[in-house]
Amino acid sequence: MLRTLRLPLLVVLALAIAFYGGIASSLYAFDHVRQFESVTVGPWSAWPDLQTGRVDPYARAYRARKADLLLGEAEGVVFTAKTDDQGRALSGTCSYVISGTTPRARFWTLRATSADGAPIGGNPALPHAFQSQDVLGDGHGGMRIAAAPTARPGNWLAIRHAGRIHFVLTLYDTPAAGNAGIIDLKMPSIERTGCGDA
Amino acid sequence: MRSFVAAVLAGLFGAALVHIVVVLATPSYATRDVWSKVQRLGETGAFHRLESAPAVIGLPNRDPFLRSAVCVFDASHGPIHVTAGDAAGTPSFWSLAVFDTDGSEVYSMNDRSAVERRVDVVLATPTQMLRLRRSRPEALATSILVALPGPKGYVALRTSVDDPSWDETAKRFLDGAHCAAVDAS
User: Which of A26, A30, A65, A69 to mutate to probe the B interface, most B CBs <10 Å?
Assistant: First the structure.
């Protein structure tokens, strides 16, 4: 009895491994291809050539699943930060200081989003986004933005949100878009200054 | 035991094949990719403004300091002439990107590289391009010529809004944008 069933069982085993292994490894690749192929500067990551025809099949599959309108090379490049400088996940209940300089660009915008990329904050009177012209400089050619759930002096980015958040810094009309892998990029640091009511 | 190992090895080999097929097939089988989304925005050959609120189509205008519009084109009946902006109301920044049906960038530019900061681009297939070069229509004399890999694709046009007072300018700019086929024979 067992001898006659042996061959079919082995075939089923092989097929199961092929099917589940193939699907699971593909899904894993789709979820992790970004961290292998994107350009990272500190906590910031960007994928400046994702929209080009030069990318590999993994990036193509990622792009098709992501289904977003991407910026062309002459338009700009989007940097996203999911953690602070220490690698701790960004939270809408903590306070951060984003300071330093950005790569050269005509202008940039900074906004906070929820973990799925949707804008946060329902109160349109609060500053949920900044653009470079509106930011008070730090006097040394850089910027200093306080991102916190409660009001701060200077440049305040309102991030009150229950759960994880991302910072999205978009550079428009920048040489960094075409050469992000080649030229040395300087991105602002993200320093956590406190959590909870602090 | 030997046949068990052989079955596992065969399974792993099969898994590698399945993996390759899934990765390569995903872009062509993804039914919710950008190409299918932009087609749902409205008719072909016209710009449609994207809403800032999360839209049903799932293609929101993400940056609050920018406004965008998308036009799906089909150049099989003649080259596409993309125009926007005039002497009166051209915003301080605009950028344009042309994509093919795969979502790969064909061409992109911004206002700094445009003649008189106006959007004036002609998208043509290689054969139309040859004809255009030969006939050189007067209306397209200063246009930027872009060669398309295929007749279909989409154009994204973006413009900056420094604060709400620029909304009207941005809206006029995007609503005044055209991307219709021209008769260039």
Answer: A69
> In A, which residues are within 8 Å of B157 by CB distance?
none
**Out of B15, B70, B110, closest to residue A69 by CB:** B70
Q: What angle do CA A101, A105, A109 make, to 5 degrees?
A: 75
A33 and A57 belong to one structural domain: no
Supply the range of the domain harboring residue A76. Answer: 39-195
Note whether A89 and A121 are same-domain residues: yes
Residues A104 and A62 in one domain: yes
CB nearest to A65's CB, from B15, B26, B104: B26
Q: Are residues A45 and A20 in the same domain?
A: no
Residues A47 and A66 in one domain: yes
How close, in Å, is residue A195 to chain B by CA atoms?
27
Q: Supply the ipTM of this predicted assembly.
A: 0.86
Give the Cα separation of A62 and A59 in Å (integer). 5
DSSP secondary structure letters along A68-109: --PPPTTTEEEEEE-B-TTSPBPBTTEEEEEEE---S-SEEE
Looking at beta carbons, which residues of chain B come within 8 Å of A16? 11
What count of CB pairs under 8 Å joins A to B?
A: 172
Q: Are residues A51 and A10 in the same domain?
A: no
**CATH number given to B34-181:** 2.60.40.1610
Kindly report the backbone phi and psi dihedral angles of residue B72, in degrees, each rounded to the nearest multiple of 5, phi listed first. Answer: -90, 130
Taking only the tens of pLDDT, chain B with its 185 residues reads 788 899 999 999 999 999 999 999 988 887 788 888 898 888 899 999 988 776 667 788 888 899 999 999 999 988 999 999 876 667 889 999 999 998 899 999 998 888 888 899 999 999 999 988 888 788 888 889 999 999 999 999 999 988 888 888 889 899 989 998 887 55
Domain co-membership, A2 together with A25: yes
Chain B residues touching A131 at Cβ < 8 A? 65, 162
Cβ of B63 within 8 Å of Cβ of A111? The answer is: yes
Compute the radius of gyration of chain B from its Cα atoms.
Answer: 22
